[in-house]
Specification:
The chain is mostly helical. It is built from 15 helices and 2 strands. The chain is globular.
Length: about 450
């Protein structure tokens, strides 16, 4: 989503902005419905497989209740993620911030009321989190609705201006995510007016729609690989939890706390992925338009240098803070001395994995921006297989689980950085990179 919205924004293609946004939201709702169906129909065996030998009937019942409540809002939750990508691709960072703030307030007060006052336990926590997801999606979708309305108005202005008479006419362009009217001189107004009358009125694009058969067929080569990448990530991280179950309940509890902390701080690195997709796409499209290698290469290197500097800052921050938290504040997460000890002993591998995470996200975002999907599929297939091999053959204790994650991070970083350097930074105006600016791209995109 981020990459194709950024492409349309950089080109000033108002029609594509509308169609892409509408169709990816429709696909998000469909995928969310699939998640809901899977959880309700196959949630029990999936949870039993995930928990492994540590599962008990009570644990299975509670986890299934929580999963089903959360999955009921999956269509809205996935739409919220897509809406957030649309906002970020349009350089709108205020709306996602407000969405997170609103969701946090709903979640906190929901927990206090449902768990603290109504004594609903884990079900209350699930309802509070589900309500927070709906709130966040509502804030984000309201912003996307306003953007769609602005784009429709700009498209109408553009059509009217092209058919008007006089010395100058307005062209609606998208600048930083918002439509602006740019004046241009017309040399043949009568011809333009005649041509505009022959054009059919463009179809209204709804806020949410599902792509037709032709668009869906064009989508598969784009969305299919990204869907595989997302699933590969989920399976890879889940395999760590599955392996941790083999070392007992105490280790599993420790791992669940640590992996939750890992995902929280990984969000800071994920922002680099979004930035890389958005700004790199803009630089590459300008390189195509200008057809001047030296200035574009300088702009590209300057962008990568800034993103690398941000990655260094985020990585060092994550490493320092997480390592300190696990060693000094583990008692804030549990009262069990054994769990606190395990968290402290395994802090280094986890902190090093987070140190590398922003750099991985930077180069992965660059690969998505250049639509190097076949490479992503191939590398994730290989790294996922290597991770499984490490967990199966070289993991004899709990520390080895986090060591395997650290190795997984190193492999991804080496693969992605080498590919981006050879394919994008060293030769930014190659034919493969220019392919992202070709007009024959499907409106929908991957998340």
């Amino acid at each position: 989503t981020t990459s194709l919205i950024a492409q349309a924004r950089a080109k000033g293609d108002i029609r594509k902005l509308q169609v892409t946004s509408s169709q990816v939201l429709g696909l998000a709702a469909f995928l969310g419905a699939i998640i809901t169906t899977v959880v309700f129909s196959a949630g029990r065996p999936l949870l039993r497989w995930t928990a492994g030998l540590s599962v008990t009937p009570e644990l299975l019942r509670l986890s299934l209740d929580y999963s089903r409540i959360r999955s009921m809002v999956s269509p809205l939750a996935i739409m919220g993620l897509v809406a957030q990508s649309i906002c970020l691709a349009c350089l709108d960072t205020t709306t996602p911030f407000l969405a997170v703030l609103a969701a946090s307030l709903v979640n906190v007060f929901g927990d206090l009321y449902l768990v603290g006052q109504r004594n609903m336990g884990i079900q209350g926590a699930a309802y509070a989190t589900a309500a927070a997801s709906v709130t966040s999606t509502a804030v984000l979708m309201a912003s996307v609705y306003r953007k769609m309305k602005e784009w429709r108005e700009a498209e109408t202005t553009n059509a009217t201006s092209n058919g008007s008479s006089g010395a100058a006419a307005g062209i609606a362009k998208v600048i930083d995510g918002s439509p602006h009217l740019v004046m241009r001189n017309e040399t043949n107004n009568s011809t333009t007016a005649a041509a505009s009358k022959k054009k059919k009125k463009k179809k209204h694009v709804p806020l949410v729609s599902f792509p037709d058969r032709a668009s869906l067929l064009k989508l598969i080569p784009l969305a299919g690989p990204m869907f595989f990448v997302i699933v590969a990530k989920v399976i890879s991280y889940s395999s760590l939890t599955v392996r941790a179950t083999d070392f007992g309940v105490t280790v599993l509890a420790t791992h669940n706390i640590m992996i939750s902390i890992f995902f929280f701080y990984a969000c800071f690195g994920d922002s680099i992925n979004m930035s890389s997709q958005t700004f790199l796409t803009d630089v590459l499209i300008k390189a195509k338009k200008n057809k001047s290698n030296d200035p574009n290469k300088r702009a590209l290197k300057m962008l990568m240098k800034r993103l690398l500097s941000m990655s260094v800052g985020i990585g060092v921050f994550n490493f320092s803070v997480v390592r300190w938290i696990l060693r000094n504040l583990s008692g804030s997460f549990t009262k069990e001395a054994a769990i606190s000890k395990l968290m402290s002993e395994n802090s280094t591998y986890m902190a090093m994995a987070l140190l590398l995470h922003p750099f991985i996200m930077l180069f992965e975002g660059a690969l998505i921006a250049t639509e190097d999907f076949n490479f992503l599929v191939g590398t994730y297939t290989m790294t996922m297989g290597l991770l499984f091999g490490l967990l199966k053959l070289a993991t004899g204790s709990f520390p080895d689980v986090w060591r395997a994650l650290f190795i997984f991070q190193i492999i991804r970083l080496a693969q992605f950085s080498t590919r981006v350097w050879r394919r994008t930074i060293r030769s930014p105006s190659s034919k493969k990179d220019d392919s992202i600016t070709d007009g024959a791209r499907a409106p929908p995109a991957s998340a």
